[in-house]
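Subject: Sanity check before I submit

Could someone independently write out the structure tokens for this chain? I want to compare against mine line by line before I put it in a report. The sequence has 358 residues.
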Amino acid sequence: MRMTNRPVSIQDIAKVAGVSHSTVSRALRDSPLISLEVRQRIQRLAQEMGYTPNQVAQSLKERRTNTVGVVITSISDPFLARVVLGIEEVAQAAGIQVLLSISDNDPQREIQLIDSFHRRRVDGVISSTARIDETHLRRLVKMGIPTVLINQAVPGDAPLVRAVQVDDYASAMQAVRYLLSLGHRAIGYLGAGNRPRSNWLRLSGYRDALRMAGVSANESWIRVAPAEHRYYAEDVADGQAMLEALLPTGITAVFCYNDTVAVGALLACHQLGIAVPEQLSIVGFDDVELAQYVTPPLTTVHQPKLRLGRRAMEMLLELVEEKPVQNEVLPTDLVVRRSTAPAPKTAPAMERRPREER
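---
Independent answer below. Compare away.
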């Protein structure tokens, strides 16, 4: 099936096979991203056409290192652990090596890490941190390195920078509406100041859900942990402290920024002699694995953590292949467990114990 006397190219095979040249390229590399049937058909066609790969030309054209850089805020965060697992699954299947770095929720360190990845000539970067701002976004655009942000916003016209995320605002509204459906009206919010964008969206969803139900949101029902707190372990301590400060306001339920803040709230209730959910209902966000094992098991918003990671890596590969890629929003679900119940007739009263016994 040799078509001419010149060497057969990938474009020639793609034309005959009726697929894109990137599909042919992947199939000839035996990439699992292409189905086995298509790989075998293209490989057989290439052999019949007399295709011989030019390794030198291929390397000059692609200029790739088959490595990607991944930046996360903390290695101990169970949410991010599942996201990274999803990234690794797709990367391994594509023969890509993942270089993982930790930013400790420091925006300056994050951009330094991305600079370092750029110098190492990685093929692209995935960032799952909380503080990419407009200045850093412009820096990313200037670098010209394919980048995918997880749970962060990015303009659709920013070249080579895309985002995959969940709808924090709508998810928060769903959680608060569920508490409202149980008869709760005095509903608190425990937030995280070190995740400014997602905290603002979840707090906005909380406020609007109350407003639409005809409930005037009392600002004393809202507590947000200090922005300088950077580490995952601080979420639990913040949840404990904020819940205790919130109880005198008369709340009967609380919506928490994430599950670790909710776990802190559960610990505070245990220490203060407050029964969950009989006296106080608690809702988290993320649905980390721990959520189903605490006592009582936590009602929470389920984020598709593995899918976020997988889709981020798939989008990055598509950007590297110079394919058109759109920002994506993945769906969430409310997982109802035993930390929520109908509103009690009276707000919980703290059982005052000496500090040393708590």
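---
OP: Matches mine. For the report I'm noting this point. The CA atoms of residues 14 and 21 lie 5 Å apart.
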